[in-house]
Amino acid sequence: MNGLVIAAARSGSGKTTLTLGMLAALRARGLTVAPAKTGPDYIDTAILARVAGRPAVNLDPWAMSASRLRALATAPAEAADLLLVEGVMGLFDAAADGHGSTADLAAALDLPVLLVLDAERQSQSIAALAHGFAAWRDDIRVAGLIVNRVASARHEAMLRAALAAVDIPLLGVIPRREGLTLPDRHLGLVLPGEIADFDAVVSAAAEAVEAYLDLNRVLSCLHPWRALVPPPLRGRSGRREGPGR
Fold first, then answer.
1. Which residues pair with 150 in a beta bridge?
2. What is the spatial distance between Cα 164 and Cα 161, in angstroms, rounded to a whole number?
3. Percent of the chain scored above 90 by pLDDT?
4. How confident is residue 161, by pLDDT bands cut at 50, 70 and 90?
5. CA dihedral 65, 68, 70, 72 (to 10 degrees)
6. How far apart (Å, rounded) are the C-alpha atoms in residues 41 and 188?
7. Which of 68, 81, 194, 228 is exposed most, by the fewest CB atoms within 10 A?
8. Cα 242 to the center of its chain, rounded Å
9. How far is the C-alpha of 216 from the C-alpha of 46, rounded, in Å?
10. Is 160 part of a structural domain of the chain?
11. d(CA 3, CA 1)
């Protein structure tokens, strides 16, 4: 299965906005992306489907068997260039019985994880966080890191220096920006039809993805790897052009 799981260390790290930006940016480059959401949340799937221009599927590793998850994911994945799965809460957060996490889904589908880390109010400690998440389970592969909400160029330099000690590719560093937050309420996000500036938020997220992520390197993380060659990108995070391994 050709796909990626977008996960985070905790809720509120920006993974939904980042996933929407990636969907919009990849779609603008002519790629067909099948969206999916970890768990039963119907609001998130409605948001993902609107941006992807195709239905989004719920993949619930607590309620569904591994074979059921693979069956539900395979059809949309085979009809698209890739499957992009948004995680829920933190990567290892699950139900009270310890089952149903985003990590469980990634393991069931044998998909690599892109880990979103919120850099707000931390600097060098982010390296320990990244290392711990990558090493916690041996059936999970954290294929790349995306650092979000970076305060300044100096802050970015400190984060990059710390993460250089972690053997995980840094695929993007996104500065703190206004207009990159979707409104929410007690039980989750608001439906896209209820958000007056929804399209503007998605457009801003896509611009941030284009500017600060190396999408060529992101695509190189796909499992199994398949050549997807969008036009050359010049993201701030990368040093190479074209897909890399």
1. 175
2. 5
3. 77
4. very high
5. -140
6. 9
7. 194
8. 20
9. 27
10. yes
11. 6
28: which 2 tokens?
A: 């603008």
Q: Which residue has the tokens 């890739």?
A: 82
- What's the token pair of residue 131? 């290392």
CA 76, CA 207: separation in Å to the nearest integer?
26
User: Could you give the C-alpha distances from 183 to 17, 124, 141, 218, in angstroms and in order?
Assistant: 11, 30, 31, 27
Would you state the structure tokens that stand for residue 126, as one six-digit string? 């982010």
| CATH number of the domain that residue 29 is part of | 3.40.50.300
The SS3 call for residue 3 is strand
Residue 239 one-letter amino acid: R
The answer to whether the CB of 3 falls within 8 A of the CB of 223 is: yes
How far apart, in whole angstroms, are the C-alpha atoms of residue 180 and residue 122? 20
Spatial separation of the C-alpha atoms in residues 45 and 55, rounded to whole Å: 8
Cα(79)–Cα(100) distance, integer angstroms: 26
Q: Is 231 contained in some domain?
A: no
DSSP H or E run through 22: helix 15-28
208-234 confidence digits (pLDDT tens): 999 999 999 999 998 654 545 544 444
Looking at residue 231, what DSSP letter applies? S
* Residue that is written with structure tokens 């993949």 in the block: 59
Domain interval for residue 157:
3-220
Please tell me the distance from the alpha carbon of residue 213 to that of residue 204, in angstroms, as a whole number. 14
Alpha-carbon distances, residue 3 vs 35, 36, 59, 74, 152 (angstroms): 10, 10, 14, 10, 32
The count of structural domains within the chain is: 1
Residues 6+ apart with CB under 8 A from 12: 118
| Phi, psi for 174 (deg, rounded to 5) | -105, 125
Distance between CA atoms of 172 and 221, rounded to whole angstroms? 13
